[in-house]
Amino acid sequence: MSENLNKINSTPEVSEETINSVMKKYDRESNTRIWEGKPKIAITLVLVAFSLWCIYVTLFATFLEEIRLTSFMGLIILMGFLIYPAKKGEQTPNHIPFYDIVFMVLGTASYMYFALNANTIVNLGTKFEWYQIIIGIVAIAALIEVTRRCVGIPILIVAGFFVIYALTVGLTNPEFLGRLKYLVRNLFYTKEGIFSTPVNVCSKFIVVFIIFGAFLEKTGISEFFIKLANGIAGRFAGGPAKVAVISSALCGMVSGSSVGNTVTTGSVTIPMMKETGYKPEFAAAVEAASSTGGQIMPPIMGAAAFLMADFVGVPYSSIIGRAILPAALYFLGIFISVHLEAKKLRLTGIPKEELPKMSKLIKKIYLLLPLVMLVVWVSGNYMTMQRAATFAILLSIFVSLFDKENRITPKKILQALEQGGKSAITVGAACGVAGIISGAITMTGLANDLINAIVGVAGNHLIIALVLTMICCIILGMGVPTTANYCIMAATTAPILVRMGVPTMAAHFFVFYFGIVADITPPVALAAYAGSAIAKSNPMKTAFQASKLAIAAFIVPYMFCYNPAMLLIDTNPLSIAFICVTSVLGVFGLAAALEGYCFTDMNIVVRLIIAVGGLMLIHPATVTDLLGLLLLLAGLVYLYINSKRNPRDLASSN
């Protein structure tokens, strides 16, 4: 996609070498083996066959579910070893070490053993032989190794903690071998571990949507989104930063990686922001915060929307409908901050002659048709999610025929299927490890102990439980991909809030949001660090700046736990309209207070008044809304009057 992005304007761009270097450093998926010639063709065919197999299975397969799940994970292991080397660094073309071949064969064979003997294994109950336990250990070890290679260490640290806890303290069997046998049996041979909800949903829904995203990329939609954002906001004050916010929100709808989104769109927007006059830390932070927000943007939500629908037990359309307002507030907060920063620095926009013409962009609006129809088909219950994704893939191919530059040819179809298969490796492996975490927690009852501990500390004070849960989510979410991130939160932290009386939907949105913001929250802020590498800024300062820009993500989740009406739960159209207006004003107040500028520079007292007013307006209650509105208006009137003493300040705010 970076090749397309580099065609957008004449702004100095980041080199392809730099982009690849940043991706390899902060995105594990980019560290791949080098295949050339016939071996490359063979690997491509494996990935293409996997994608086609997943589409076929989700649409037509009627065989035993255990066969579907084990064969899926077996192929994930096979492709994982073929694509990802054991360590970073320069790779010898067409080379795979002997030990990798052995590990790959043994790991894949372990899953295929289960697939081929599924009927017998399901009926075994607890009567497993030791050779079967050894097969399970090999399968788990292969999954852990593939995950280490393509996802990273953080999620394995979390999984390792829970597994060690189970073997040493959590399980009641007095003998270690007895505990080991019980643990492996439950993690591998039942649906309580690897093959639990995460992998089930991944193999059934998520992979097809990943493939759809790969086809959508081939239509040139990312380039269209950035050009559209330029056309909408580029000419205004600090235009490039606003372009970054809008384009990242749009690209985030189909992207499943905060880091990937940061690097691909940031390679264009960050140099533009720096050239306009934004400081490097601010430019990188805007892109990182916006790209991270793409993971909470409907309709895909980093593929977590499908998992949330399964965990909460509601239709997928209900999840994406309730996610719209919080996501809009998140991006609005960033947009207001970059606008006020531009006014404070007196920055200009992109010259009109350098902007794409909207008349030409409107002619390509048909590129949005697959995404629009996908939402319509699913939300209207016209067809299942996987069938809707399949039809959306076909529609993507059709709409591309109207664009000569991005027409999807047979070669591009193979490339999309290949990319879809490759992207599925990371998600599938992460979901498998998330299943291990969930299984270990369930077997030991640790989740209940954690719930009791936090509820005991919080007492009857919901705010204490929310703060402690937030801290847990940020720690557990550090360096973990979106899908696995949410799976961990749903198993460990969401039940805490449900026990405290928070509606299930609101509890799951709360933990999802705080798991996601770990990508920009120090000390492990991968998206912020990736942005800083492009901007050549201080990584830690960038992370703190990104966290400040994403203030809505730290405030709004608290609000919808106290009043779920913000998630459109138990409310009506009039209340929704009122909540939208007050929330927008509240986010404006918070953003202005944090920026320290509106009409003119603010002193500490005015910043506090406007910040408190903003918080009160975000909280959806009549009394707090009225008080918040009075405080916000009082602060803004004071600033406006004060700015008249400095005509330059007043002029820059118009």
TrEMBL record:
Any idea where the TRAP C4-dicarboxylate transport system permease DctM subunit domain is? 139-573
Q: Which NCBIfam families match?
A: TRAP_fused (TIGR02123)
Q: Which domain of life is it from?
A: Bacteria
InterPro entries found in the cross-reference section: DctM, TRAP_DctM-Dct_fused
One Pfam family assigned to this protein is DctM
The residue range of the signal peptide is none
Q: Does the keyword Transmembrane apply?
A: yes
Arranged from A to Z, the UniProt key words for this protein are: Membrane, Transmembrane, Transmembrane helix
**Record-annotated membrane-spanning stretches:** 41-61, 67-86, 98-116, 128-146, 153-173, 193-216, 323-340, 361-379, 385-402, 423-447, 453-476, 483-502, 508-529, 549-569, 575-597, 604-620, 626-641
What's the name of the protein? TRAP transporter, 4TM/12TM fusion protein
